[in-house]
């Protein structure tokens, strides 16, 4: 089942990546309703939209997170999908051993620093910090400044050879600072994703940190059954978030991006999505029953 869920997740994430990228290219109509829908389901635009009276998308994303954890990061975020593609591309040049991931300690101080850097200025009406840290905004810069300008250059060259009815020349203002920022950000992303998977999502990205805090209360969480686990380390070696400590059979849910890799790789079926709300309620009932039995015994002994 998890294998089919992962395939569906990959298909959805690639479709969203493709649609949002097209939205930033010069040959497409940026006002196309079909493309603009995928822009609206991005977290930061939805968050800012809530302040203008449109909170439906934001509520939807929060509900998804409270149900399945950081599913947004694995399926809906185009920058997350881009990181996965970079990781896969880098693995083509690595041997089998160097492709493995390992558990890394949570960098909480760094994560909360970037989250505060993005959120606190909003209370003073300053959005520039969030704009430079927002994954959607940065993906937009990569798409428009790097991919879009390359596409524009090719189109203008073809317009010299073909009639305007096929290819017509387009013009746009070139801002060196924006181009250099997009190129530098992509270079940073390539380095981080090539060696450490989703490290950017779990250190710099304020959206990832915020959704990670919400995912603590998620209904369904990936959990390891210690009785079925044979400590083969396959789950940890395939966790691109580095959030699985196979020695203690613990998963840091705040950093898990719900990619389902661990569940597919586990040959013992020791990892599964579990309804933690139901378990918590059952544990509370068991504790209350135990407390009641203890009080009854004390009364009889008295």
Short description:
With 302 residues, the protein is mainly alpha-helical.
Task: Please provide a written account of the structure.
- This protein is mostly helical.
- It has one domain (2-276).
- The protein has 14 helices and four strands.
- It has helices spanning 2-24, 33-40, 43-50, 56-68, 71-75, 78-91, 108-119, 128-133, 135-159, 176-196, 206-215, 234-237, 261-265, 276-301; strands spanning 220-224, 244-245, 250-251, 271-275.
- The strands form two sheets. The protein has a two-stranded antiparallel sheet with strand order 1-4.
- A hairpin with a 4-residue loop joins β2 and β3.
- It is globular and about 70 Å long.
- The termini are far apart.
Q: What is the overall pLDDT average?
A: 85
Count of runs of 4 or more consecutive helical residues: 14
Order of helices and strands: HHHHHHHHHHHEHEEHEH
Percent strand equals: under 5%
Helix amount? 55-70%
**Multimerization state:** single chain
Q: Segments where pLDDT lies below 50 for 5+ residues?
A: none
Structural class: mainly alpha
Taken together, the total number of domains comes to 1
- Gap between N and C termini: 55 Å
Q: What is the number of strand segments?
A: 4
Largest beta-sheet characterization = 2 strands, antiparallel
Strand arrangement across the biggest beta sheet: 1-4
The radius of gyration over CA amounts to 23 Å
Shape: globular
